[in-house]
Write a structure and sequence with these properties.
Elements: H1 11-24, H2 37-58, H3 60-65, H4 68-81, H5 92-103, H6 114-129, E1 149-152, E2 156-161, E3 182-188, E4 194-199, H7 201-212, H8 218-229, H9 234-250, E5 254-258
Antiparallel strand pairs: 1-5, 2-3, 3-4
C-alpha cells in the first residue's frame, strides 16, 4: 500500500506529528499552531527531563564526567534524532547505546572512551533485568569441574575493552587505550546482586571456551589452553585453571557441570 504524505493525513494526525516533532527538536521544528507557548513549554520540559533523568540514572559515571552543557547537548541530540524501536522505558538505555554506537558520528571533543564506558554501564542494567534462570535440570551444582563439562551462567558476560572502563571516573579520564585490553566478567549471582571481576587473558580464554559449550571437560579445556600457550609445564596451567573454575563457581559465574 502506498504511503501518504503528512499533508494528506487527517488533521488530527498531522498535528500529532507536529506536536511530537517540536517536543523532540524545538529549536528546528515549529510548534503546532494555536497552542500557547507556555503550555508547549510544559510538555517540552516534561518529556526531555524524563528522558534525561532516566538515562542519567543508567549511565551515572558518564553523567558525572560530562559537564552540564555537554551532557544536555548529547541527550538532546539523541532525543531529537533517534527513532526508538520500543515504547518500554527499560529499553531506553539500549536504544541510547545503539544510537551512540551505530548512528551518532564522532564529534570533536568526544571522550575517547565514550562508547566503551556507555556499554559497560549499560551491561549492569541489562543483567539486572535479564530473565534467564541460573537453575536447570541438566546442571549438577556439585559436579566435578575438571571431570565434567563446566556450564557458564547465562548471567555472566565476559567482555573486552580497549580502556579500563571499570576505573573511569572524575579522577581518572584516560586519553589513550591501555597497553593491553581490559578483560572483565560482569555477572548476576543468586542473590540478584550484579558484580564484576577484572580477569587476565587466560581466564578470559577459559570463559570463552566454556561459553562455546563444545562438550569438553574442564580438564580438557585447560589442556587446550596450555597447548595454545605452548607452556613448558601444562600441569601448572591445569592446576591454576582448576582454582579459577572453583572461584568462578563460588560467584555463580560457573553454575556447575553437565555430563558428556
Amino acid at each position: 500500500m502506498a504511503s501518504h504524505s503528512r499533508t494528506e493525513q487527517p488533521d488530527f494526525i498531522r498535528r500529532q506529528y507536529e506536536f511530537a516533532a517540536h517536543i523532540r527538536d524545538p529549536d528546528n521544528q515549529p510548534a503546532p499552531e494555536d497552542i500557547e507557548d507556555r503550555r508547549m513549554g510544559i510538555y517540552r520540559e516534561l518529556f526531555f527531563n524524563n528522558v534525561e533523568s532516566f538515562i542519567a540514572g543508567t549511565f551515572p559515571v558518564l553523567r558525572k564526567i560530562l559537564d552540564d552543557k555537554t551532557w544536555h547537548a548529547l541527550i538532546r541530540d539523541y532525543f531529537s534524532r533517534h527513532k526508538s524501536r520500543t515504547p518500554l522505558f527499560l529499553e531506553m538505555p539500549r536504544e541510547f547505546l545503539t544510537w551512540l554506537e551505530s548512528e551518532r558520528d564522532k564529534q570533536d571533543g568526544d571522550l575517547p572512551f565514550l562508547r566503551e564506558l556507555a556499554h559497560y554501564e549499560w551491561v549492569e542494567l541489562a543483567l539486572s533485568i535479564a530473565e534467564e534462570s541460573l537453575d536447570g535440570p541438566a546442571i549438577d551444582g556439585n559436579g566435578d569441574l575438571m571431570k565434567g563439562i563446566p556450564v557458564l551462567s547465562p548471567l555472566a558476560w565476559h567482555l573486552a575493552y580497549n580502556y579500563p572502563v571499570h576505573r573511569i571516573g572524575p579522577d581518572f579520564l584516560p586519553d589513550s587505550p591501555g597497553d593491553s585490553p581490559t578483560f572483565l566478567v560482569v555477572y548476576r549471582d543468586r542473590d540478584n546482586e550484579v558484580g564484576f571481576l577484572e580477569i587476565n587473558p587466560v581466564t578470559k580464554r577459559l570463559l570463552e571456551l566454556v561459553d562455546e559449550d563444545s562438550g569438553e571437560t574442564g580438564e580438557a579445556l585447560l589442556s587446550r589452553i596450555a597447548r595454545e600457550l605452548n607452556h613448558p609445564d601444562p600441569g601448572v596451567v591445569i592446576k591454576g585453571g582448576e582454582e579459577i573454575l572453583r572461584n568462578m563457581k563460588q560467584k555463580d559465574i560457573i553454575l556447575g557441570t553437565r555430563q558428556p
